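Retro notes - structure team

What went well: the batch runner handled both jobs without manual restarts.
What didn't: labels got mixed up in the shared folder, which is why I'm recording both outputs here explicitly, each with its sequence directly above its tokens.

Job 1
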Amino acid sequence: MIPMLGAVLIISAGPQAWFNRTVLSNRLAVWVGVISFPLYLWHWPLLSFARVLETEVPSVNIRLVAVALSVLLAWLTYRLVEQPIRFGKGNKSKTAVLMGMMLIIGNIGYFSYLKDGFEFRQADAPSKTKLFADVKALCCSTRRTIGSTISAKPNWVPVTSI
């Protein structure tokens, strides 16, 4: 509620308010605003992928690289995708191509839903699920109790040679 009220106050202050003229009109603030949506789209996949690669919370360095890469990809997305679509020539052809792509992607999603996913992924899903469950049971089990927060306590099983 408080952020929404802050936004209302900033907007209602008008373009001549000191905060709007000085802070929000700053080139850096405008640039961050311009890339904010592509940045929103890029940062979670990269941070999630880093987590998958590390199998735990990635180090600070890896997270910083992922965020920096997100900023770079967001800027490139703005320059190479968003600007040409919004301000380039051929608006009717762009609209037709985007509508066609939307219909194709929507149909792929719908038909994969009807078939319970893609067949090539279903063939090895049980083995991957079992492998993930085995790995999680061996090294990363968490104990939960009712009314408590989740506390991760590694359950390491020593490997002995036979």
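Job 2
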Amino acid sequence: MNKPESTTPSSPICPGCGESLACTANAQCWCMKMPTILPVTLGLTGDACFCQGCLSKKLAVKLERLIASTPHAEMLEQAARYRPIGEASSKLQEHLDYTTENGFMVLSAWYHLKRGTCCGNGCRHCPYPS
């Protein structure tokens, strides 16, 4: 005799690293604050969800390609929607806003675009025309 299938849904698993997720797929979820540049699986099943680390890495790769292939003014407009205000300005997202190299924080082109202007410090990933 076959066992009946469980009707209790299991916790979603991140397809990138296998970490268990507490995905809500609603407006309160942390992922709703991430740049909306990746396609989302229709139906918003657990298969569409990644943990914050894996999603940040996927978005960073996609952003690099997008920044390289999109006109500067268009990218500035896109980034302005994610410009932090007030306290949120101190909450940088690893992989999206910065990476750590040899113990130093290296700001990304995406961070500089969200900033809105060039700081004039000759940053490695400065996306602003010289």
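One thing worth noting from job 2: The chain is about 25% helix and 5% strand.
We'll revisit the folder naming next retro.
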